[in-house]
Amino acid sequence: YHPGKANVVADALSRKSGMVAGIKVEEEIICDLERLGIEVLVSRQQGYWASLRIEPDLISWIKEAQKEDSEIWTIVKNLDKQVEFRIDDDNVLWQDTRLVVPNDATLREALLTEAHSLPFSYFWWSGMKRDVAMFVARCLICQHVKIEHQQASGLLQQLDILVWKWDEISMDFVTGLPLTQRRHDAIWVVVDRLTKSAHFLPIRKDYSISRLAKMFQQEIVRLHGTPSAIASDRDPRFASRF
Question: Can you list the domains of the chain with their CATH numbers?
Fold first, then answer.
């Protein structure tokens, strides 16, 4: 765009107007042109308007850089095996609905700067997640406004020294074990905090709360009585209705 005084021969894009007339086009196109402030003038001579394309400089930069990138050429050569990639009518490579960005550090830095505050991702390149994480880590604004979404935890409290065995216990689950012949894949560890004696109960990690409570009565309460306190890591099974 050039101001009228700076342009000796004013073209269509140099004239700002809210009217588009004299051309039979769709109403949506006319509305879009009016919002852009574009007026198309047709002289008395017979003619027609073929097309008008406006795109950001970064998009043009990406399309030109794709032609010289070896990694993109490798993807294009193996396009039959790459289901998620496609070539459009302009011979531009896309990853699904995102434009593939060549391996150009300057270009990628410009894209990250441009799209820093946008809520969507229009581009894709190999290692994009790593580059975005590094960019955000270097961003001073991101570091200033970083917010913790979890409630602050309190200070650690020292446990009291006990005077009687099996008065207070601690327990936890050991999971990720191979299946046994009885289809057990976890161990429930119950430890007396005073004597450090322990019970190791074979279980399955999908046992219900009611079944765990029944096992606790049979294996722990039956032998040592009901403990006055239980220390755990606040596993959902312990923090629920156990």
Answer: 1-54 (no CATH), 57-144 (no CATH), 168-239 (3.30.420.10)
